[in-house]
Amino acid sequence: xxxxxxxxxxxxxxxxxxxxxxxxxxxxxxxxxxxxxxxxxxxxxxxxxxxxxxxxxxxxxxxxxxxxxxxxxxxxxxxxxxxxxxxxxxxxxxxxxxxxxxxxxxxxxxxxxxxxxxxxxxxxxxxxxxxxxxxxxxxxxxxxxxxxxxxxxxxxxxxxxxxxxxxxxxxxxxxxxxxxxxxxxxxxxxxxxxxxxxxxxxxxxxxxxxxxxxxxxxxxxxxxxxxxxxxxxxxxxxxxxxxxxxxxxxxxxxxxxxxxxxxxxxxxxxxxxxxxxxxxxxxxxxxxxxxxxxxxxxxxxxxxxxxxxxxxxxxxxxxxxx
Amino acid sequence: xxxxxxxxxxxxxxxxxxxxxxxxxxxxxxxxxxxxxxxxxxxxxxxxxxxxxxxxxxxxxxxxxxxxxxxxxxxxxxxxxxxxxxxxxxxxxxxxxxxxxxxxxxxxxxxxxxxxxxxxxxxxxxxxxxxxxxxxxxxxxxxxxxxxxxxxxxxxxxxxxxxxxxxxxxxxxxxxxxxxxxxxxxxxxxxxxxxxxxxxxxxxxxxxxxxxxxxxxxxxxxxxxxxxxxxxxxxxxxxxxxxxxxxxxxxxxxxxxxxxxxxxxxxxxxxxxxxxxxxxxxxxxxxxxxxxxxxxxxxxxxxxxxxxxxxxxxxxxxxxxx
Lengths: 322, 322
Prior knowledge:
The structure is a homodimer.
Chain A: E1 2-7, E2 11-18, E3 28-36, H1 43-53, E4 60-65, E5 73-75, E6 82-84, H2 85-91, E7 96-101, H3 102-107, E8 118-122, E9 132-137, E10 141-149, E11 152-157, H4 175-180, H5 194-204, H6 213-219, H7 224-248, E12 253-257, H8 260-264, H9 273-276, H10 284-288, E13 292-295, H11 297-311
């Protein structure tokens, strides 16, 4: 049995994976189980629990994890877990172990997505020979792309969410300074993540007690300042996406994934999101014609697992397999 | 005879290209001739002049141009030229015409570079399975990468230089506002280009008459403010490179090309360039270990032409050939 996992900063999702025999679709996942990372001292313990609970003896395993995955040792960026690749392979007696970044996994899925689980934010005009970008805010800010290559897809493994924050002149004055009081390096992730949304709310509502990201989302209907924080979130997301399109040349499409954006999508039309993604000086046409999609929450949850499954056989990810 | 060209906003370079028969090196260029774009009403006229001057009947042609190259019509970003691809192919009766972005061409060359024409800015530790980034300031700010793919190199065609400018807290206050008075969209190119260096000087020396980029470079030895503008240039270049590494995952190496950086390189050690590229919060290791190189001026001038030559047979650029 093949096991796949999508492990973020907060949640770890495990599933069984059955590859598609035709190669024309993703495989299928079953026995999807979600654990809170904080409930387990290590990833191996959570994996052990999953296998025991479902009485599974794993054969191949593919783990999509939130953070860089070079070298033998993997440290999660947004939680306390870490592991040594070879130790996992030995402990579970695996025939192969694939370890990729969680957004590399997300990026492998768009060619196979079920359109019913996707909201079209802008139709646009796709350039088929260019990259497809996938990004998303959750505990952190994921960013990855795939490039059409020889009939297949070559993944671009990145940590683009951790680039320095870039603002437009219509962004509020004082925002940079405020964020600098919170974080050592003010990156896009400093705004576009769970904690980022909380910072944005604190910036907007400096006279009020802080709210959690969940509270901000849940109270936005009645709380003007929560709403303002969410609108600011979408404006900054547009800056991030514009820079992402330009720096990867991704004009085949941008897919917004991750846990946060689908929860807030009702407020997107109140922001300057689409306007910012169509006004970029001499590059307005370049940025302004890219199709934009939002992967709905249920499908986003599965996408990381399906991508982990696809990674087991992607020819351009051989260096990620042990 | 194969003709290659590297056409920026200011200069157009033409040469004859002889492919390498082994495929293990670039080909060779000869009859390199440089024209000022402003001296010709169109690119076709400059090409005509080149062919006549050297009594060449072109067979294949590969043109690396500064700007996006999708569609039939190509508009240069930083000069008044434009052309229709099919018209060029017909007018010169070519067996094939390849049109790529000038930095896509630059990006194809690093695997074959002559180390004597390269300054090692930082040795670093390369990750061989990741992208190689090539960027450079000239009339504009070029940015492209190549990804190892199936024994060859898959180019990442981008316009990353036109992303929104991102600043650090150690960058001077008021810089964003100053640049916003100059440009519709404040991009990295607004600082890291010929005009960008001129803006930086005007920002630093607001009490003095403006200088051209050339004057800034030539007077920096005695002119404190020209020197300060150049140091600011390198600091902002480090921001750009850090974001570039993160957004493309390029940890095999970064090559700085283009006309401007080699001319200013004596002042690089006075800037925070290396420090900024080793301090990036949780991503300090990620950014801080990437090998950094500067392509010297003479080799940079040839690199675009060699890359245009390589593009004629790169399997991942089939969509750029007519």
